[in-house]
């Protein structure tokens, strides 16, 4: 499923998406140069807790780690591994991501209601 174009995601930044149209962001992507990392927007400390404190605010102020605003946990961008906080050693659920030659960013997501697109 197409989320956006690479040019729509500023470098050293993150953006949330609602690909299943559930009314809230369920997936987010982080851009570091030409690398894109995608995760489900769920903290492993409490599985139903979204990470950002406001829309698209997934990273610390320096853009170095992903942060859970509810628990203060910090995660490595490239791996999703919790390196500080109450879920040390656990990881964010990865979402398969692909950058197409034309710059489109695609993800493979589980469709909770069946149907849907895949990359």
From TrEMBL:
Q: Which Pfam families match?
A: Rieske (PF00355)
Q: What is this protein called?
A: Rieske (2Fe-2S) protein
Keyword presence, rRNA-binding: no
* A GO MF label: 2 iron, 2 sulfur cluster binding
Q: Which domain of life is it from?
A: Bacteria
Pinpoint the Rieske domain residues: 1-106
Q: Does the keyword Magnesium apply?
A: no
Q: Tell me which CDD domains the record gives.
A: Rieske
**InterPro entries listed in its UniProt record:** Rieske_2Fe-2S, Rieske_2Fe-2S_sf
Q: Give the keywords, sorted.
A: 2Fe-2S, Iron, Iron-sulfur, Metal-binding
């Amino acid at each position: 499923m197409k989320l956006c174009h690479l040019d729509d995601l500023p470098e050293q930044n993150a953006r949330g998406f609602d690909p299943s149209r559930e009314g809230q962001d369920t997936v987010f992507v982080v851009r570091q140069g030409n690398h894109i990392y995608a995760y489900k927007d769920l903290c492993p400390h409490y599985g139903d807790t979204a990470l950002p404190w406001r829309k698209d605010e997934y990273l610390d102020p320096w853009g170095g780690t992903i942060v859970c605003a509810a628990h203060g946990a910090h995660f490595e961008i490239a791996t999703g591994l919790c390196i500080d906080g109450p879920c040390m050693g656990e990881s964010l659920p990865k979402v398969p991501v692909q950058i197409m030659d034309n710059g489109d960013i695609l993800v493979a997501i589980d469709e909770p209601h069946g149907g849907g697109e895949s990359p």
